[in-house]
Every structure is written in C-alpha cells, then in structure tokens.
Amino acid sequence: MPASAAVADGHYQASNETTEGGNWTAPGPFGIDELRTGGKQISSGGSQGPPESTRMLPTGGVVLKYLPLNPAQSSYQPLGRNQALKTDYLLAYTSAFGESVGDYEFVVVFWQERSTEVNGTQQTYAANQTVQRIGFEADNGYSASKLQLQSHFDKQWQATAWLEKDGERVEGARWRFAHQTNPLTASPAYPTNSKGDLWRWGTLNLIIPAICGIMFSGASAKHVLSRTIVGTLKGVSYWAGVVVVLIGIAAILGTWQTSIILANAPIAVGILIGLLALPVMLSIRDSDLSKAGFFQRKLRQGAISPSGEETVGTRRVPNKIKSVYRHGEQLYAPVSGLRPMLARYWADPARIPTEDWKSYDSGEGDLDQLFEIDPESEKVVRHKPARLKFAPSLTKEVADEDLTDPPEADGIAALPAAISATVSNWVTRRNWRFIGIALGGGAAVYLSTVATLGSSIIGLGLATLPALIEGHEARDGTLEVDWGPSHWNDVQAQVQTERHEYEERQTFDQVLEAVTELEWSEHEKGQQIVDRVRTEIQKALDDEHGGNSPSTNLSPSSPQQGVDADD
C-alpha cells in the first residue's frame, strides 16, 4: 500500500464488503500482512553493536528510545522488537548527513487484530485502524526529537510505524511494537530531563501537599478526640492493614483515573497521602482503658448476727466488668471500632458523672475501680453505647392536624378537592430534607469533582457521600446504674465495727473461761489438802484418848460440835 493512502489522525471502521464474486475486502487502508511486518533489523543489539531499534538512513541512521516507568531512572532505553510500550513518549536519535538531513514524518498506525467468517472461511484483519503523523527534523550530525503518541488507556493496541521523507517511505525504517498507556506516565513530570526535574515536581505536587495534609491530620485528630474521648481503640497495626487495603482498592478501581488526576490536580495525590496520616494520628494519641467492676450484694435469709440473732445477710457477686475511661469529671464506657467512634463524634457517649457516685472504692488485682449497686436493682449496669444507624427514609411522620382533610362531599364535584388533598398530603409526607441533600448535594459534589479532577467515575463515587451521611442517624449512648443506698457505706462500716467488737468479745470470753477453769482447779486442790489435814488431826486425837471418840466434824461447811470433857 503506498504511503499516500495514509491520512493524519483518521479512524477507519468501514464495514466488511463482499463482492459479487465472493471476494472479501478487509476494512481500513492497510492490510494486516503489511502491518505485521517490522523493519529491517541491522543488529542483534547489546554490547556487540547498535541497539536493535536502529534503522539505516541513506546517509546516516535513526534509533528509537523510550523512558522506563521507573521514576528514579531518567535515561532513555532502546525500544525492543515487538515491545509493549507503556508510555506515550518516544525519542528519535538521528545521525544524518548529506541527503538524509531534512524534515521527516513518523507515521504510526494503531490497530487491533480481529477475525470474521466469510463464506465458511476464517478471515483475520486489522480493525479499528488509526493513523497518526508526527513531524520532526533531523539536523546535520547528531540530534534528538521527542515524539508523543496518542494515549490508549483502555486496552493494548498493536502499532506499526515507519518514516516518510518528502511523502515517500524511507526504505527499511520501520518498527513494530504494542502500546498501552500507563496512567502514571501522564503526569506533567513525565518524561523528566533530569532527576532534578523529578524532585522539583515531586516536591511541589507531592511532598509539600503531603506535609500540609499531615499537619491537618494532626489538628483533626486532636479535635476528633476532644469529642470522641478515645479513638477506635485499635493499634497502629490495625490501621496499617486498613490503609493497605484502601490503597489496594483505590489502585484497582482508579487505575485509569490516576492519569486524569495527575494531569488536572496532581496535588490531590499529595493531599491524600497526608490524609492517610489521620488514622495513624488517632491511634498514636489513643488512650488505654481501665477495668471497673460493678458489684451487687445479693440478700440472703438465715444469717446470724454478731449478737447471735437470726438476720438478713449479704453475698457479693461480681456481675459486670466494664472497660472504662475516666476523663475529667466523667466516667466513660467506650466501645472499640470505627463506627462507634464516629457515633461518639455526632452523639453523646455513654458516661456517668463522678458527682453521682455513691459507692466507690479502689479495685484489687486486675480491677482498678469497684462500684456497689443496689441489691434490689434488676440490672447491675444498663449500658448502651453511642451508635450510628443507617435509616434513610423518603417519608416522615406527620401529625394529623398538619394534613389536609379530604372533602366530605361525594361525586364528581368533589373530585378536584379530593385530588388536591391527596397530592398535598403526599407532598407533606415526603422527607424533603433527605431528598434535597441526597440529590442536590450529590449533583454539586459530582459537578465540582468533574470540574476539578475531570473524572466522572470518581465524581459518581463521591456523589453518594451526601446520601450516605444524611441517611445515618447518630443516637446517644447511656450508662446507668442503681447505686446502693446513700448510707450503704456507713452500714458496711458499722457491720465491720460490730464484727471486730464481736471478735474481741469472743476472745475475752474465751480468756475468762480459761481463767475460771484454772481458779476452780486450784480451789479443788486446796480443798483436798485441807480435808487430808483434818483427817490426820482426827486420827491423832483418836490415838491420844484411846478408843473411838465422838466423831468431830471439822468441815468448815458444817457447824462445829462441842466435845464433852470432864477435866
């Protein structure tokens, strides 16, 4: 096919034609056999000779090179045979002398291989052909010209290129490669002429916005914690995993939108990097919770008081252990997680003012605080954390007096009034606040995103945020307990005092009993000695007077009887 058949920037999608004789003509100005043919390779490349993308000119040569995707590499590499090119930029290095000096056109045909069945035969052809012409000048001696190709973000295209001079093809100056634009290469910094260019662009568009975003994240984390009291109660590792997942999802869904963002608002990437520091700031500034035990003393019958009387006793049972956080004059019982944290931001968290505490004591072991609950309370603790509930509604409750009463009359004459009342009540029952924010806010977000970033897909995603935010309802948390009676601690102190006194009295009684037993034992021993002495005296008297004398009772417990004596 002669070169004159190619036109600049044209799309060829002519339908397949079948002649009367059954001959089939493929669409497009170029046949697939011609487009599959590459140029004449003059070298195998490498260190043994010129690069393989080198082509000869009548008096000179030309080499095509490309810039790799590695942002740290600023040197161009030779284009390989049938290489999949991921950038839109090529560099044509020329060495021209004599008749080879002058203006050239770099002609590129982009096409896709397709197959169709014609009269029972499978035919392969080059479909969707697009021709691009790029003019450049080869100076005398050595020179380099930058060639910018059309972008192809959706899929990979086949490309066949050649050189033309004065409307005629340069023999042998022909290349074959594949082309698919990587979005990152559409950055204004690509291609870079030096690493300094790359650092300058990265500083202005990534580093500075990222630093500003980190500073904003730090201030935002302080503000958020002032309202939520504590963060998500998750560690840095948790947030690191979340950030990795979010970045992965964003990379998958927004692959073909990255170039649009970098081209229109590259600082958005730097701001996003800074905003990712917000969860890290929240986790670093998060607080540790303590353990509090809420105890309820169960009453039991049949207990014995210190005085020995039957009474009512108590038995302390550990009923509830809560993770709490004391901040200022409030005791909070937060729940871990992102949604509970957001709920605490919009609603009042579950808390108990310290001034309401009636029975409090320091804890033991793993418990930091102890609270006594009324023994007659049905529940030890009633805890309902602040929460978010997604409950979007297109309707709302309306009082009957705010509705229009239907007409009392019947018949066709009353039909307009009945229709008017029905329409009025239907309009009154609509939740226009939610509808307005969801539709109006969504449209505003979509239009502003498209105007700023030029991406309709990102705009549609962000347009759902107003409906999601307005559809959520933040509900206050509650933390309630029935404290023990106001004199509960005094009663406990009295019981402890009586118990101590009881133990002391019990000890005294035991000592008194021991002393008494000791005294009676010694008394009995003395009485036995006295009885023995009296017995010995009586025996001596009997021996002295000879014979039995009237018995003399010397017992001190009976009256002493006199003895008749004649002397």
From TrEMBL:
Keyword field contains Membrane: yes
UniProt-annotated stretches for the region Disordered: 1-57, 540-567
Biased composition range(s): Polar residues: 13-22
Keywords: Membrane, Transmembrane, Transmembrane helix
Domain of life where this protein originates: Archaea
Keyword Transmembrane helix among UniProt keywords: yes
Biased composition (Low complexity): 548-559
Spans traversing the lipid bilayer: 198-216, 236-254, 260-282, 434-462
Entry protein name: Uncharacterized protein
UniProt source species: Haloarcula rubripromontorii
